[in-house]
Automatic annotation (TrEMBL):
Name used for this protein in its record: IpaB EvcA family protein
Domain of life: Bacteria
Amino acid sequence: MQNIELNDSVQSLINAVDDLFDGKVEVQFIGDLQSGYVRHDQAQTVQDKKQITVQISDLSAPNYTASHELLHLLMTLRGFPQAYFALSSGNDELNQQLMMMGTELYDIVAHQVVVSEQRRHGLITPEVEAMYLKGVQATIDPEPEAGDDRMTLRLMTVLDALIFYGTGNQQAVDQLQADYPKAFAAASKLYTMLMEKPVSSPFTMRRSIVKLFKGFDNQLEAWQLPPLHNQEFTTITSVLSKRQLRLEVRQIFELFHSEMIDPATKRRAYVGINRADGQNSFVIAAPAPKDDTPDFFKAIYSLSVEELFHQLEMPYILRDGSANQNG
């Protein structure tokens, strides 16, 4: 394990996590790889009870990479919405792909906050910007004229890069446009959509995630590629007012009998779809066939939202910014 001294800005982020987390936080550098580029898969966060370890596996830009992971962690601890995966397609390989892509889209929205904070702390230097472009190029090949089956990944990667560069590095943006013209054009539209109402709170983050899930699928369908269906597959933490918590479930959510299954029971699951935006907000395991009756639905629909979330041990976020972990 490498002994690398992190700068004061990163130390301040570690301290901020320490202040919010009831336990110990540390950053570990594993190995001595220096690829010469930066990419989000160069770090991971591992939690073991009251120990959080941020593991860095590439030493090309340790302060950038560590701060990126720490800021994601801070967003979680400060009560921003999270993505959960409680459904199964019945195919493990497909599940992994759907979870990876759902997480990537979620992260793209979160990166509005992460990148802004990194820039505010001076952690994104011209050297890091150059390494980021190399990371993009290490992830996706230039578009072939005839097209191929990598456009979904290109669209995600280029959109994330636009969030990273913003309007500050025209040379890098021009390179993206030259190498990935079709993905760049589509990503630019999604970027413009997201920037119309940038993330400034848990509520606006959830709204942006849902907009991106919809917009991304619309683009894939325009390319005649299979959509990801993250509005059904991925559960996003609800952001609710105190008034909404007191309302009956039927007033806020619609129970949808999904084609996807509950991994525990292997039966088709019921998904709680937010009536306002169509997003999966919770998942209920289907009862045994003898109990799968209208009374089952009536009982759920007549609960208050707060009662149901308490029963499900489903976290939610109050519009005032506080989080309820519900166990």
